[in-house]
User: Which sequence fits this backbone?
């Protein structure tokens, strides 16, 4: 893989999304930005800051059930110290979401006070929901709306256009299509997004992704989760590179082909799926 990861991500579609965001921004009071708690930095589109500007914002670190709790607390402190209201939640289970609306009202306290002073008590709060593909926007809206108002699919870019959803308390949500920059200058960020499924799996072949993921997990101190999950001896695997470790996983799981060769492609798919599904344990791949 080259040092610059090239990702073709419908530049025309992204330009349209940027225009839509800028157009709708003046219609909303606050932006709720979703990021993946496992990769809080890489899962935020840098263009969102530029487009949002000074608009009040709440950052929601989603999929926190899959993330390392200690690292999530560090990330929340990191953002709070920089003046960003940040919360951790899991949109599929609903855990942590009861703090979202109080957090929104907190960042809008001055605006809500002005509404009340001018006789606009009860005016609905209008929120824009933004985030890169596959970060959980549809799951969030479905949770808040109490039903499957938006399509939820575990693949990037399923939300095709901006849509409004009204909640039971009158709050109005604006769901924006997923946005992702078309070129990663930072190879590491591109890999992290591939690991979590934020970019299409064709970007990296399964073996390359699994080998790189295993290397990153061990470098981040999660080697014990790997040996525990796959029944490997830590001493026997300590000096193995990523590919040899993948072979050890495949051998342990009985993924053998004719001639005793290990089916590393099957092992690769399993390792990546188990990471994405939280089966390997609670893992965060970036530190503040």
Assistant:
């Amino acid at each position: 893989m080259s040092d610059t990861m090239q990702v073709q991500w419908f530049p025309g579609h992204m330009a349209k999304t940027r225009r839509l965001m800028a157009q709708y921004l003046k219609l909303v009071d606050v932006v709720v930005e979703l990021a993946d708690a496992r990769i809080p930095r890489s899962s935020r589109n840098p263009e969102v800051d530029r487009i949002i500007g000074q608009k009040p914002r709440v950052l929601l670190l989603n999929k926190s059930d899959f993330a390392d709790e200690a690292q999530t607390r560090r990330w929340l402190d990191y953002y709070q110290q920089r003046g960003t209201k940040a919360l951790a939640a899991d949109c599929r289970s609903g855990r942590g979401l009861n703090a979202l609306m109080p957090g929104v009202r907190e960042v809008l306290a001055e605006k809500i006070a002005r509404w009340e002073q001018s006789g606009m008590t009860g005016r609905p709060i209008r929120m824009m929901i933004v985030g890169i593909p596959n970060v959980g926007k549809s799951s969030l809206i479905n949770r808040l709306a109490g039903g499957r108002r938006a399509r939820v699919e575990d693949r990037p870019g399923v939300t095709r256009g901006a849509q409004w959803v009204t909640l039971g308390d009158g709050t109005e949500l604006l769901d924006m299509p997923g946005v992702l920059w078309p070129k990663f200058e930072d190879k590491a960020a591109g890999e992290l997004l591939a690991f979590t499924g934020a970019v299409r799996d064709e970007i990296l072949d399964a073996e390359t992704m699994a080998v790189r993921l295993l290397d990153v997990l061990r470098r981040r101190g999660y080697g014990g989760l790997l040996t525990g999950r796959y029944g490997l001896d830590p001493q026997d695997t300590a000096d193995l590179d990523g590919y040899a470790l993948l072979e050890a996983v495949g051998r342990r799981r009985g993924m053998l082909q004719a001639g005793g060769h290990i089916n590393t492609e099957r092992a690769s798919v399993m390792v990546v799926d188990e990471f994405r599904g939280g089966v390997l344990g609670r893992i965060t791949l970036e530190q503040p």
Remarks:
- The chain has two domains: 5-183, 205-276.
- The domain at 205-276 is CATH 1.10.1580.10 (Conserved Hypothetical Protein Ylqf; Chain: A; domain 2).
- The CA atoms of residues 14 and 179 lie 6 Å apart.
